Amino acid sequence: MQIEAPVQSPVQIEVLARRPDFLRAAQARRQGAPGFLLQARQRRADEPAPPDLIRIGYTCSKKIGNAVARNRAKRRLREIARAVLPLAGRAGWDYVLVGRPGATADRLFADLLADLARALTQIHAAPAPRGNSRAPDPGGPVREPPKDHRR
Question: Torsion angle of alpha carbons 47, 22, 12, 120, nearest 10°?
Fold first, then answer.
């Protein structure tokens, strides 16, 4: 009996780890879903990441619950991304999945999968932001707001 190697998806997926990448994604497109919030941005050509790469990040605030609850929510987000992104994600994009309190950890897994597929379809169908948008350049440099030194 011959065992075949698993088929690799043509698109590579990498995990976001740097805060500026998360901030850039937060300033770009957003799509809410019952189980999470999806933030997405198309990378510029002059960025160091390869253009044939999908990058994904996960975040869950303390509103989700204690560390155990946050880790469970992130594990579920990682698993739906592993299942859906190779099929519905686009190379050259950064995605961030933000967990929702009382939903990410408790929602049926099949519903989370459907939510992500639907959210990706809506993100990619949306026209590019134009005019006086909230963020002038979603791929531009990240600037933190000035600190208020008053007491």
Answer: -110
